Amino acid sequence: MSVLGEGMDFSGEGIVRSWIGRICIGLGGFLVVAGLLGLVWAPGVVERTPLDVNTTTYLDGEAGKIDVSTGELVRNPIYAISVSKTDSEVSTDDTVAWVSSSCVMIDRGGERVCEDGSADMITAGVDVFATDRHTGLAVNEGIDLPADATPHEGLVNKWPFDAQQETYPYWDGTLGRTVDAEFDRVDEVDGIEVYVYSVTVTRNAAEVAADTNGFYSTSKEIWVEPMTGAILNQTENQQRWLENGTPVLDLQLAFTDDQVLESAADARDNMSLLTLVTSTIPLVGLIGGPILLVVGLVLVRRREQAPAAHHPREMAGAGR
Predict the structure, then answer these.
(1) Which H/E stretch holds residue 261?
(2) Closest C-alpha to 82, from 217, 249, 259, 244
(3) Is position 310 within any domain?
(4) What are the transmembrane regions (predicted)?
(5) CA-to-CA distance for 24 and 289, rounded, in angstroms?
(6) Pair 259, 58: CB distance under 8 Å
């Protein structure tokens, strides 16, 4: 009597069970590896500022600007446009280079654009800087910025990933140094939980216009989505005076309503991606993977331990 395959289940059901077991083992192993990568490796990869950013931010409000013929402040509705672009040719794996241009214009009801040389322009400027792709902090070394680029410090245009309820150094371009951005409260923007940080500068000496010294105050509130560090809203109340105390600017600005909704939508998309890669995949992989491995091993072992099927030829020869 043949003993080939004794102790193995060669029935159709056993073969199917064995293949299912092997599939479970393979899938379980894949999920465990994916879960470990999502837990250990993925955060350092996905929690980084992209190198292909090109965003335009719109703000509006009101400002009083000095009329040099009368020395009085004349109030008008205003708008501001800020364009931030990354420079992929200069950026590195760890550092992203930025070119940021902005303007504040008197709103005459026409198309909202920056008009160089216009009498309606209140302020304008171009800023070139670099930041760490994870922390958002300014970087001045190890990157090929233009020789005339102003060295920056602190946070410039976003908060770090996984922002905390604490005080951060925040770059003030008018002063040319950092000021404290203090955590103030938890709030909500379009259903998204945000941290609100406040910045206060009180009558500091500064250049209030080209080659004109004076004093400068500002009060800002910045709404930050903490997972991504994205700024979803910002308000500013700013004043400037000449050295003799004459007021030259009294400005109030905030993100437009449409801008707030757009910023919230972008943040929601980025939050979903981060949650998928850093939370959902590790959770599914490290819980579901071991379960599939156990199921697969049980199915394979059951086939190996099942009694051998008796073939008709062997039964016919029994007793010879």
Answers:
(1) helix 257-275
(2) 259
(3) no
(4) 20-42, 273-300
(5) 9
(6) yes
User: Is residue 142 assigned to a domain?
Assistant: yes
Structure tokens at 147: 């020789």
State CA 191 to chain mean position distance.
Answer: 17
Enclosing domain of residue 78: 45-179+259-274
- Kindly report the backbone phi and psi dihedral angles of residue 183, in degrees, each rounded to the nearest multiple of 5, phi listed first: -65, 130
Q: How many domains does the chain have?
A: 1
On whether residue 65 sits in a domain, the answer given is yes
pLDDT along the chain (320 residues), means of 10: 47 63 60 50 66 96 94 96 95 96 96 92 95 96 94 97 97 97 98 98 94 96 97 98 96 98 95 72 55 56 55 44
Residues 6+ apart with CB under 8 A from 100: 82, 83, 84, 85, 126, 127, 128, 129, 157
Is residue 37 assigned to a domain?
no
User: What does pTM read for this prediction?
Assistant: 0.78
